[in-house]
Each structure stands twice: as C-alpha cells, then as structure tokens.
Amino acid sequence: MDKNIYFASDFHLGTPNYAESRKREELIVRWLEFIAPNCSELFLMGDIFDFWFEYAKVIPKGFIRLQGKLAAMADAGIKIYFFKGNHDMWVRDYFTREIGMQIVSDELIIKRNNKKFYLHHGDGLGPGDAKYKFLRKIFRSKLCQWLFARLHPNFGIGIASGWSKGSRAAQKEKEVFLGEDQEWLAIYAKEQLQKEHFDYFIFGHRHLPLDLDLGNGSRYVNIGEWLESCSYGVFDGVDLKLKYFTSTS
Ligand SMILES: [Mn+2]
User: What Gene3D superfamilies does UniProt report for this protein, alphabetically (predicted)?
Assistant: First the structure.
C-alpha cells in the first residue's frame, strides 16, 4: 500500500444551527484537502448529515462544499464509501450517481494488507436498546420512506429539523466511557470474535473516540465525532491509528 485509508464519521452537518455547521463543514473540507494526497480510500461511516432525506427528484439544501470536495476526490481516483447512519439512513442513489460514492447499508467486511476489518456505523448493535432496534426496522422500511416522501419537502424537512434539534448531538451532551465490559460495541465485537477473527473493528455512532484492546491482536477503534473531537482513523498498511485534526494540522 503506498497510500493510506481514512475513516471518519458523525459530522452531523446541519446541527446545531447553520452557522456552526457551516464552520464545521469548512474544517472538514480542510481535513479532506490535508488527507487527499495520501488517500486511496475514504470511509465515511455514518451520520455525516444530521438529517438527510432524498426524495425521488429533490435533495436537502446545503453542504455543497463537502459534496464538491468529495466529488473532486472521487474524480481524482479516491474510492469513497458512505455508510448509512441512524441520522442519514435515507440516502438513495444521488451520491452514487453524482459523486460515485458507494453506499453501505450495514456492516462492511474488508481485507487490506492482510488485515481484516469489520466496519459499521454502530447503531443497533450489541445488547439492549430494543426500542431503537424496532424503530430502525420501521424507519428503514420502503413503506415508511414512501409515506414520508408524500409530505411536501418544506413540511417533511421541517419536521426533521425539529427531531434534529432534540438529538444528543445538538444538545452537546458529553459522552463518558462506561468501562470495557459495559461498552456495548466492545461487547458486540467480542461476540463476533467468538465466530471469526478480525484485526480491527471500526465504529462511529458512540461520539467518543476509543481505542480498546480486545485481546488476540484485535482492537476496537471508535473514530469519534466532529462536533468536539475532530477525530479520525488512518490505516497506513501496517497499523491503524486514531488521530485528531486541528485547524493548524
Ligand atoms: Mn449515529
């Protein structure tokens, strides 16, 4: 591998308001400019947008700098994957057609340089949260999306920005580490390891950058978020590192 693979998630663009989101978007674009020369693949692992709903003929306004930058990177030959998060599960084919990004609905298992990766946004995995797991099925159903699309976008996206304002991300609640035996994505990763070896489990969703040793040469890396940490993962062919981007990087 002569170039790196990058992982980032939970930009939550759109929240908590236009001005702050726009500032964050500009920082993300600077980060993309910073990594692009050394990037072969980019994994955007969910909740890139705090809300996204794609109608058959209409997409939400905004986020044009990010989309333009991603399009330029894809045109330059960088392979980009876009995972559905719990905030932006309603992508259709727009990003694939316009940017060339590959949409990933659930987990993606990849092998690079003899290392095996288990990649997923992280929502709906592990023990507990039965209510969300149930809602996830409904929200992801074709019927639910069809019904929502019947609403006029001014109204539908209006309701959605109400949800978005009530989200944890918008309220900037600080996440705290629960301990390795309580972190549900670590529990989930350990369950997977009973069946099959993975060198790395990479998740987002938790809004808490983590790098946990799961034993037997396996690690769980949570790539964090971009409201506070501006954290990301980078694999250079040998090792996976959790890093932080600052405007002076
Ligand atoms: Mn999430």
Answer: 3.60.21.10
| 98: containing domain | 4-244
Confidence at residue 249, expressed as pLDDT on a 0 to 100 scale: 67
Ligand 1: centre distance to CA 46 (Å): 7
Q: If you measure from the C-alpha of residue 28 to the centroid of ligand 1, how many angstroms do you get, rounded to a whole number?
A: 18
Residue 143 lies in a domain: yes
> Distance from the CA of 86 to the center of ligand 1, in angstroms?
5
- Enumerate helices (H) and strands (E) in the chain, giving the number of each: 8, 11
Q: What was the pLDDT predicted at 174?
A: 86
In a domain, 249, yes or no: no
Distance between Cα 200 and ligand 1 center (Å) = 19
Q: How many domains are contained in the chain?
A: 1
Q: Give the strand pairing for 200-203 and 218-222.
A: parallel
- Per-residue model confidence as pLDDT tens digits over 176-186: 999 999 999 99
Predicted TM-score (pTM) of the model is 0.96
Q: CATH code at 202? A: 3.60.21.10
